[in-house]
Amino acid sequence: MILIWLIAILMIGGLLAWLFSLRNHLLARWTALIALIIDFVLVLNIWIQGNSIGFNEWIENVKIPWIESFGISFHLAMDGLSLLMVLLTVFLGILSVLTSWKEITERVGFFHFNLMWILAGIVGVFLAMDLFLFYFFWEVMLIPMYFLIGIWGHENRIYAAIKFFIFTQASGLLMLLAILGLYFVHHSQTGVYTYDYFDLLGTAIAPGIAKWLMFGFLIAFIVKLPAVPVHNWLPDAHTEAPTAGSVILAGLLLKTGAYGLLRFVLPLFPQAAIDFAPWGMFLGVLGILYGAKLAFAQTDLKRLVAYTSVSHMGFVMLGVFAFNELALQGVVVQMIAHGLSTGALFILVGQLYERIHTRDLNRMGGLWEKVPRMGGVGMFFALASLGLPGLANFVAEFLILLGTYQANIVAAIFASLGLVAATVYSLRIVQRVFHGNQVEEWTLPDLNIRESLIMGSMIVILVWIGLYPQNVIDTAKPTINKVQQKIKSVKEQSVLSQYLSPWTVDDDSKLEQGR
Amino acid sequence: MTVSDLYTLSPFITIAAAPIVIMLVISIYRNHLVTAILTMVSFIVASFFAYDVSAIVPWTIGDLLIIDQYALFYLGLIFSASFVITLLSYGYLKGREGNLEEYYLLLLTATLGSSVLVASNHFITLFLGLEVLSVSLYALIAYVRTGEQGIEAGIKYLILAAASSAFLLFGIALLYAQLGTMQFDELARRLPTSNATSILVMTGFSLLVVGVGFKLAVVPFHMWTPDVYEGAPAPVTAYIASVSKGGMFALLLRFFLVVDGYSYTSLLLIFSIIAIASMFIGNFLALMQNNVKRILAYSSIAHLGYLLVAFIAGGNMAVEAATFYLVAYFITTIGSFGIVGILSDKETEADNVEDYRGLFWRRPWIAAVFTGMLLSLAGIPLTAGFVGKFYVLSAGVGSTLWLLVVMLVVNSAIGLYYYIRIIVVMYSEREKAAEAAPSVPSFALGGGIILAVLLLLLIWFGVFPAGIMDVIKSMALSLG
């Protein structure tokens, strides 16, 4: 039941915030904040309890029939991976409300309504164990996100919002097709109509069909992730969105893509995923390098940060298709670390924008003297972004590279070049914004208590995970192991069948050589 | 004709008698409100009878009509839609010049035609129903005669509808010449024994497709749609888009199932081509419009294309999917045109996209309802349109119509753009110049309530579709 409450609290909180804002804007902000804090406490409680007993089973599992004639149920379940993701969602949600405290002054109620419903949709995506329900939540979060960008965004917001919407919707529809395909394949084998994840897991699909179905899912996820050829919507959406929107986009929406890969693509279509792996890794490496290159070339600070996301998500893509435990664990840590560090960078950009009303790097410079606290914080997150040892991002990228090295050495070599590139663009941020000569004579206030609180909490978590990632790793371990076992067994089977079958070309030629 | 016959006919009799009664009432006491209320009462009474009759169905009346679950479901749908449209029409017409009362007579006769269609089991009733519907629509489209557009639209519709009826009649004649019957069941019996692929039969079927295609406004018989939609008063447009098309589609579905049209691959091919063409042409042309009514007109062409995908899938699933889609489509179309009507005033129709700029900040409730309707048309979750699209896709994938299904998906993506465009405009800032003179259109309380109800239904069917799906399922079983 608690899982339903997690979503319901957010939705109700959003509605109430809208309602209250008719009276008082401040009340709306507090309502949203309190709803999020309640959620956060609930999830944290689950985590603390789970930490003491371990995470081997599904922590919570609720299944209520919904549209029975189609075999659709309202099925939510939480395991370690979902738990971490939900925790991240709610945490970043709190920060988003806090960063918007002064930034959003118009239509406050509607803003918080949208914000809360996006979060509800994201939590739903992380918890849904019915494919119809998953798709449902997947789409539910789009509309409020669209409004968030389209109403409170910057100059070019409408273009960005429409682009974002069409990219994600179109790819989502392909996923819907794949879901339907899977549904009918399952029915043709078992005679049961169901969208339940656990039932569909066991479906044996003919390789040809599996490939197409996997592509349906894959496209939806790599558009969200985003991987390089379909990353096009991201820079625009991130740049034009209000700060809270950027935080949610970078911190959470992108993670739904990564989560989808881990939760659906690998377990449902292991063989097809193995076949796709070289391409997946190639796309990952491409994303890392291309994203970094583009990030370096930007003069718009927000756009720069947006492109670093493309680069960082390349690591996720790489790690997912490396298939071993190290890499997959790295992916989980990367999801959290990137959510926090990039979220923080976007918040920083937002805070700067509130003060100097520009995102143009050429007009900044020498700000360290004016706002030393902000400079220090900016330095910290830039270092986090480049993967400084001792911070969470380092753990993540190191694990991914280590895992990739076992799977594909060439990919690992090229991917590690990405770390160098990350150093370049991250330090460029610090240098262009905070060092050098002052281009314009700004007089600025430094971080206030609210802003310091936001930044401070993120710094603490990044350091904590950087120094002691074990809590996160332990939590995600059962999920990761299951995924990895599945892939492994399929791999072994295919190897085995190759040896056992006397009719394969290789064996024939060996026989001939023997004669 | 027995008492039971008369009893099962009671919904039709009600709708047929109502115009006569109301005509007499008008001659004694001419009053807009009274006429509208009487019209609504007759729709309620007819729906009540339709519900009451459901205990003794299926019931055939001679060779001509068949009253079964399927017919009754569609009757209910048509009556409720007409009821809503009457309410919206009242708000729309109130305060206009000229005699307004006869409008409702025409609405009733049109509804009679449409309801005969959904129950018809014979080419004669098909044709009669169609003509009663069409003739009433000619007048309805041109009813508001303050501008030229209405009359132009009426004449356009008149000429094209008459031509398409001629095609239809010729098709019927050809089939009759070959098979010697006009009754659907009898046709189904004789078709396989006769040389089914003979030129006469195929030509007959093709001509039928022309006639039906015109009413459904699918490509290439769609030319009239944008002009008529634009020229007609908003509630009449809603009526054409929903009741008129719905009745025709119900008939097509029944006819195809009874005569087993699914065994003729060439016919299915024709319908597939029509479906794909409708989707693409409808969506692409909608992209280029600046007039909300025209956008909705082209989008309705595309939606009929989607609907045909479900139709082509065949089997019970087709009936279920198409019916659910139609229900969702009825709600959204009536809702959107209702909003256009509510925003229009005596002088101008609010059909330019720019008229909607900043609507959300001026009249948030109307904008919210319109947003809901548009999102439903786009097939976004939490709305009935999503479940409808999902149903259609399921039907398509279930029958492995991959090409059609992929086309549907591609088109949904294209369609998003113009729905969103309207939404964007509604939520963007209003220009300062326009702020000066806010028009105060007629806005009846009834219209507001009905829009709220439509929105609630839309969300209800989107979130808890199980209830209505069960009703549709049992109805589909009765047909199959």
**Order of helical and strand elements of chain B:** HHHEEHHHHHHHHHHHHHHHHHH
Please give the share of residues in helix of chain A. Answer: over 70%
* Morphology call of chain B: globular
Broad structural category of chain B? mainly alpha
Could you walk me through the main structural features you see in this protein, from its secondary elements to its overall organization?
The complex is a heterodimer of chains A (515) and B (480). Chain A has 515 residues and is an all-alpha fold. Chain A has a domain at 321-515. Chain A contains 21 helices and 2 strands. Chain A has helices spanning 2-21, 25-53, 80-103, 108-127, 131-140, 142-152, 157-190, 197-201, 207-224, 233-240, 243-268, 270-297, 301-320, 325-356, 367-370, 372-386, 392-407, 409-434, 449-467, 470-500, 505-514; strands spanning 60-67, 72-78. In chain A, a hairpin with a 4-residue loop joins β1 and β2 (72-78). The N and C termini of chain A lie far apart (68 Å). Chain B is mainly α and 480 residues long. Chain B has a domain at 264-480. In chain B, 78% of the residues lie in helices and 1% in strands. Chain B has a two-stranded antiparallel ribbon with strand order 1-2. In chain B, a hairpin with a 3-residue loop joins β1 (59-61) and β2 (65-67). Mean pLDDT of chain B is 88; it is low at 432-438. Chain A binds chain B through residues 66-70, 132, 135-136, 139-140, 142-143, 146-147, 150-151, 158, 161-162, 165-166, 169-170, 173-174, 176-177, 180-181, 183-184, and chain B through 375, 380-382, 386, 390, 393-394, 397-398, 405-406, 409-410, 412-413, 416-417, 420-421, 424, 427-428, 465-466, 469-470, 473.
